[in-house]
Structure formats: structure tokens, C-alpha cells
Amino acid sequence: MSKYLAKIGLEMHCEISETNTKVFSGARNYYSEEPNTNVRPVDMAFPGTLPVVNKEAVRLSLMASMILNCKQPEYIWFERKNYYYPDLPKGFQLTQETKPIPVGIYGKVDYECDGKIKSVRINNLHLEEDAASLDHFYDTTNIDYNRAGVPLLELVTEPDFHSAKEAVAFLEHMRSIYQYANISEADSKKGQIRCDVNVSIMDSSLDENDPNNWGTKIEVKNVNSFGGVRDAINYEIERQTELKETDKYDEMEQQTRRWDEESGTTIYMRSKVDAIDYKYFVEPNIPKFKVTDEWLEEIKKSIPELAMERKKKYINEYGLSDYDASVLVKEKKISDYFEECLSVGIDAKTSANWVSVNIIGYLNKEDMDISDFYLTPSMLKQITDFIKDGTISSKQAKEVFFKAIESKKEPKNFVSKENAQISDASELTSIITDILDSSTTQIEQYKNGKTNLFDYFVGQVMKNTKGKANPVITKEIITKELDKR
Ligand code: ADP
Ligand code: MG
Fold it and tell me: Are 205 and 213 in contact, with CB atoms under 8 Å apart?
């Protein structure tokens, strides 16, 4: 047992991408590569403009809160967190951090890590607005207001994780929840997920449930990828362990650091003692509004099927293995594609095979998203139908699959009479009897125990048909015909 136990708490920010408009303005909530195209006067803090709360953003937040087993508030309101930074045109961010009751409190979430079910307590989930984004160049900085006012959910966990592995497994679980519940694409490449990680270490012989035994908390800000979260946590555990071995640990103050991707280290930003005074006060332009029981009931009923439920269905109803089911539900878009294969009439095992092996393999190799993948489930059905009726072998099917996606033409274009597999029993029987008729010596040797000559007969049939004979049927007929002689 290691001498120290790490305590890790996460603050996970996730943009809500599935509303039409921003959280307090009518500007489009839409990820765009083109800067400053989704902006309204409210986002720019023009005098005289007033915020209007986006009901859909609140509905999705409450849904997330329910999925995390949190308690929902009776009233919703917001407050201003005041600070100056160029990405914050209003000079304050609307949030729910101190006085307002957040959209969720005191939850608990189960997640899977290394095949084991673990659980983490949720301190709170609150709804706020995102800031603009800054693009730094050599001697200038560009501001893009597209992101200003995008609804942002901040999830704060208790420090219940003990390793980077657990923290990342939880983040993956959360990403899946946000995707399956149609709350967010939760795409880190679009900057939709950002994390702050809090790490401390304590003596592992002490009771970890008593906060008095916890070590000094180090907060690492703005870690933008799950790989970054993993590396930042491991780096901090190692750094703090080394400090423990000297007497400097006890002098260490609570501090905020930032993750530096390039050097793979955390860098000191400020001590908690110099904490910024945000001068929080209630946003006067948004009246408190009541969350009715009827509304909560309605939201609860509308929670879509989540990954865990789909996985159970795949195992129990479709007979897939635990492993295959996990692979298929990992990304919602992949799981949706798989379900569409079933609805166009491909059976579950065949669909699972094609999706988990050929399709996911291809997407990974090309670093492609399935929404950009050419072959639709109904096109895939052309291929599986050709295999089923014996027109093509499974080896030919793979060739057709790649030809179709590479040339962006439907699979049926690559299956012609000339290269079709021969599965017709009477046609094959006639070819096989001809071959056997002229192989009397080999048949005699075969009958005398040289059974590996069977492959010779198969080879002759393949040669004769230029490899188009259906191998399974060919073998059946050869066996039957040899028995007769
Ligand atoms: P602050 O007031 O500094 O924001 P909080 O108590 O609100 O701190 O906690 C913020 C985050 O830090 C939470 O995710 C929480 O789980 C985590 N945290 C608190 N104490 C510790 C600790 N000793 N070690 C690691 N994480 C901690
Ligand atoms: Mg916050």
C-alpha cells in the first residue's frame, strides 16, 4: 500500500449545444468557425439591453440534474460574478455560484472504471454563461464573441476520486450522459468541455472521510482535454509526493496553477490567499421564477435512453457480448448508426460486426466522425444482402465496402454478374463432376487415406471458376460427390 492517498475533485464545464439560442440572448447557439457571426447586443453588453432566460437551457440543465440524482431547486435565479477580463464584455458573468440555489445539489453518480462500478458524490450543478474566446497571435489578440453567452453547465464533484484513471473514467461517463440526453455534443475539439482539477494527497493510514486529515488542495485551471486531465493529475500527485518527502509541504499554501500542455507541467498562478473578490450580487434584471412539480415531472418523463440502458438492451435482447455492446454505446452517434442498421433490417450480430470492426476501424484510421461517413445503413444492407443470397463472399464484401466508401458510390455498383460468386448448386455440381471425372488417380489416392487431397479438388474448382465458387457450398458438394464414387 502506498504511503499517500490522492484526493481529487473535478469542476467540469460543459457547454449546452442543443439549444437554438444562447442562455440570455436571442443569438444563435451554434458552433461556427467564422468569428463574430452569432452575436446580439445583449452579448456585447450594449447599454439598455436586458437578458431573457432561455427556458430550454433551464430544462436541459434540470434534466442533467435529475440524471445526476441531484435535488432540484424550487426557484431559479442568477447572480453576477464581477471581474474584468477582455473576454467578458459585460464585466460580469451570470452564474449561480453563491446565493442562488443551483439547478442541482447533492447528487451521486455511478460510473465504470476498469470493469468496476464506482461512485462519486456531486456537490452541485449550476447554469452559467460562457465567456468570449480569445485567439492570441504574435502581436495581437482577436476576440470572438460567438461563445459569449453560450449556456454552460458547471458540475462540481466532491473529492472522491483517488486516481487519474477514475477521474477520466468519470469524465467519459459524463460526456456520454450529455450526448445521450441530447444536452450537448460534448466535443472537446470544439472546446465544449473544459475542466479544473483539484488534487491533494494525504497520509493513507488516516481516515479519508474526515476532512481534517486531507492535505492542501491544489487547483489546476483550464485543462481542455481528457488526456490533459490525466497528465495534470499524475503530475500533481508526483510533485506533491516529492514535496511531502521534504519539510516544505507544510509551508505550502492552497494555490491555483495552470496546466501547460507543452511542458507537461503545472505552473503556479496565484495563492488562494490572494483570491479574487468577485463581489457577487443577485442579477436584478432576471426575476426569480418558480420551478413547478408538473414541469419537473414532465422533464423526468422525457429523459432519453442512456448508454447504460442501451448496453443492457444490446446484451439481453440482441445477444451481443459485453465487450461488443460497450464498443457500440461508447459514442452516441455510433450507437444510433447501429440501431439504424437494425431498423433497415440487418440482423443484430451482423450489424454489430460490421460497425465495431470495419466501420469503427475505418473511422479511427481516417480520424473521421461517423456523421461524415459515406456509407449509410441502407447501403450497408446492400452488402449484407449480397452475402446472404450468396452473390458475394465475405472477402468480396470487404472489397465492395472499401470501393464504395472510397469512390462514394453505392455498393451495388461494384457487384456485377461477371464477378458474382457462384452459389448455384447445380452449376457447381456440374463443374465438380467434370473435375472428378478427370481425376481418377487422385480419387484413388484420396480413398486410400491421402485426405489432404481434398484441398486439391477445392483448388481445381477455384481455378476453373476464377475463384468465384462459393467455398462453403463447393466443399459440401465435393464431399457428397466423393462419397458416391
Ligand atoms: P473553493 O472554495 O476553493 O472553490 P471548494 O471546497 O468549493 O473549494 O471545492 C472546489 C473543488 O475542490 C471541488 O471539486 C472539491 O471536491 C475539491 N476539493 C476540495 N477539497 C479538496 C482537497 N483537499 N483535495 C482535493 N480536492 C478538493
Ligand atoms: Mg464557475
Answer: no
In this prediction, residue 422 carries a pLDDT of: 82
CA–CA separation, 470 and 485 (whole Å):
23
Task: Please tell me the pTM assigned to this model.
Answer: 0.84
Closest ligand to Cα 14: 2
CA-based nearest residue to 286, from 2, 461, 42: 42
**Position in ligand 1 atom list of the atom nearest CA 200:** 24
The ligand 1 atom nearest the CA atom of 215: 23
Domains of the chain (ranges; CATH) run 4-298 (no CATH), 306-410 (no CATH), 425-484 (1.10.10.410)
Ligand 1 mutation target, pool 217, 221, 229, 280, most atoms within 8 A of CB: 217
pLDDT digits (tens, 9 = 90+) for 358-375: 999 999 999 999 999 999
Is residue 71 within 8 A of residue 104, CB to CB? The reply is yes
| Residue 253 near residue 275 (C-beta atoms within 8 A) | no
Q: What is the DSSP string of 293-330?
A: HHHHHHHHHTPPPPHHHHHHHHHHTT---HHHHHHHHS
C-alpha 293/C-alpha 301 separation (Å) is: 12
For 324-355, how does the pLDDT look when each residue is reduced to its tens digit (9 = 90+)?
A: 999 999 999 999 999 999 999 999 999 999 99
Q: Whose CA is nearest to atom 2 of ligand 1?
A: 272
DSSP-based three-state secondary structure for 381:
helix
Residue nearest to atom 17 of ligand 1 (CA): 9
Q: Is the confidence at residue 417, as pLDDT, over 70? A: no
- Name every protein residue with a CB atom under 6 angstroms from any ligand 1 atom: 7-11, 156-159, 198-200, 214, 217
What one-letter code names the amino acid at 13?
H
Ligand 1 atom index nearest CA of 10: 14
Nearest CA to 41 out of 52, 33, 32, 30 is that of: 52
- Alpha-carbon dihedral 291, 295, 299, 302, rounded to 10 degrees: -170
Q: Which ligand lies nearest to the CA atom of residue 256 in the structure?
A: 1
CA of 82 to the centre of ligand 2 (A): 12
Distance 28 CA to ligand 2 centre (A): 23
Cα of 35 vs centre of ligand 2, distance in Å, is 24
* Residue type, position 182, single letter: N
- Determine the Cα–Cα distance for residues 177 and 255; give it in Å rounded to an integer: 31
pLDDT tens digit sequence for 207-243: 999 999 999 999 999 899 999 999 999 999 999 999 9
